[in-house]
Amino acid sequence: MLSPSTFYINQSGPTEFVFRLLTASPKIQALLFCFFLLLYIMILFSNTAIIWATYTHTSLRTPMYFFLSSLSFVEICYTTTLVPLMLSNIIKARKPIPLAGCATQMSFFGTLGSTDCFLLALMAYDRYVAICHPLQYTLIMTPQLCTQMVAGSLGLALFLSLPLTLLVFNLPFCGHLLEINHFFCEVPPVLHLACADTRVPQAVLYVISMIVLTAPFLLICVSYVFITITILHIPSAEGRQRAFSTCSSHLTVVLLQYGCGSLVYFRPPSTTPADEDWHLALVYTFVTPLLNPIIYTLRNKDVKNALKKAISKKAASENL
């Protein structure tokens, strides 16, 4: 049996990639297609609802909801970069993706995924200022600063993603049609297919992963240490519970996002099981983009009230 790196190695022509089949059973393919399509629709609907509620209700025009709506927008773009092609490969015969197409998907995934991680750190900083310095909150978290931080996150993510993508696709790939043991063009499985020394791009990937995953996670941990100390000094139990509830939703998403990302990017390539990476990738492709708006909607009275008012207004206007 041929390994992925020697798949159709004797064919001539420009290098193209195909993604691994999740299953060979047509019935299971149909079930997976319906399941992932449903998740994708839910991700689009729930994140769009967050953005719409934030920008149509003046009560939600605060830094916290600005970051939340920015996160929702990034996650819509992020999943749209990956999921439609995945669905196409599930229901149809595997269509090859050219080298340029794979590089484009990798660049968008790296940029948007990194921005997602940076935004989670910004949200932790916002909670730190709101809880630890409530009297100075409006002076510190100005609209201009919030916009600059989001733009800076996107710019930094783009700055880190593009050179890594160029470095990966400057490597030679031996063969015409190579099978990626994944459902999208992520850096580690693509590097496995290169027929050259990959130590330099692996080292660059590790450094970038430290910047994208470790540094924001440490900032989040430091923020929550100060937040916890401040909350414990709140005299009323109700006040402490309210303060903790505003942080628990964010922490749930953080642990899933950074935990799965660290398992993929910080393990030595030789110790990575063939199937484990794409199982973990399903978490940050489907679970966290869906979990984020659901958690914030279910646990946040302001968002729930805004959505209820919007639905009731629309129903009233249709009845007129």
TrEMBL record:
<keyword id="KW-0812">Transmembrane</keyword>
<dbReference type="GO" id="GO:0005886">
    <property type="term" value="C:plasma membrane"/>
</dbReference>
<comment type="similarity">
    <text>Belongs to the G-protein coupled receptor 1 family.</text>
</comment>
<dbReference type="InterPro" id="IPR000276">
    <property type="entry name" value="GPCR_Rhodpsn"/>
</dbReference>
<keyword id="KW-1133">Transmembrane helix</keyword>
<keyword id="KW-0297">G-protein coupled receptor</keyword>
<keyword id="KW-1003">Cell membrane</keyword>
<feature type="transmembrane region" description="Helical">
    <location>
        <begin position="149"/>
        <end position="169"/>
    </location>
</feature>
<dbReference type="InterPro" id="IPR000725">
    <property type="entry name" value="Olfact_rcpt"/>
</dbReference>
<keyword id="KW-0552">Olfaction</keyword>
<protein>
    <recommendedName>
        <fullName>Olfactory receptor</fullName>
    </recommendedName>
</protein>
<keyword id="KW-0472">Membrane</keyword>
<dbReference type="GO" id="GO:0004984">
    <property type="term" value="F:olfactory receptor activity"/>
</dbReference>
<dbReference type="Pfam" id="PF13853">
    <property type="entry name" value="7tm_4"/>
</dbReference>
<keyword id="KW-0807">Transducer</keyword>
<feature type="transmembrane region" description="Helical">
    <location>
        <begin position="278"/>
        <end position="298"/>
    </location>
</feature>
<keyword id="KW-0716">Sensory transduction</keyword>
<feature type="transmembrane region" description="Helical">
    <location>
        <begin position="244"/>
        <end position="266"/>
    </location>
</feature>
<feature type="domain" description="G-protein coupled receptors family 1 profile">
    <location>
        <begin position="46"/>
        <end position="296"/>
    </location>
</feature>
<feature type="transmembrane region" description="Helical">
    <location>
        <begin position="30"/>
        <end position="53"/>
    </location>
</feature>
<keyword id="KW-0675">Receptor</keyword>
<dbReference type="GO" id="GO:0004930">
    <property type="term" value="F:G protein-coupled receptor activity"/>
</dbReference>
<dbReference type="InterPro" id="IPR017452">
    <property type="entry name" value="GPCR_Rhodpsn_7TM"/>
</dbReference>
<feature type="transmembrane region" description="Helical">
    <location>
        <begin position="65"/>
        <end position="87"/>
    </location>
</feature>
<feature type="transmembrane region" description="Helical">
    <location>
        <begin position="203"/>
        <end position="232"/>
    </location>
</feature>
